[in-house]
Amino acid sequence: MTEPSIPKKRTTIYVEPNLLRKFKEICIREEESMSQNIESYIARVVTVHDKGNPQLRLERFIGKVNQTCYRCKGHFSNLVKVKYASGLVADTCPECLEYARERKLVKKVLGAT
Ligand SMILES: [Zn+2]
User: pTM of this prediction?
Assistant: First the structure.
C-alpha cells in the first residue's frame, strides 16, 4: 500500500537563462525530474537552516563552520571535495553527498577540503 502523497503547489521562480538551460540538460541526461531536484534542494535547505536543527546548533560549538556546501548552501566544518558525473567538482556536505550517491551522481570523492 502506498502512502497518499501531499498535493504539490505550482510556483514560479526566476532563474538566469543559461543556468536554467544547463540544469535542464543535466536533468534530462541523468533522467531526473527538474521539479524533484529543486524540491529536494528546498527540503535540504529547510532541514539545514530550520530553527532548532540540533546539528546546526551543535556545529557552532565544534569549530570552523565557514565552509559552504555548494548544493544546500549550508555551512559545515566537514565538507569533502566531490567529482560529480556531470564533471562538476564541488565541496559537498555529508548529507548532500549521501543524497548524490543514492542517485548515482557521484563519480569520485576526492577527499577532505
Ligand atoms: Zn549540503
Answer: 0.45
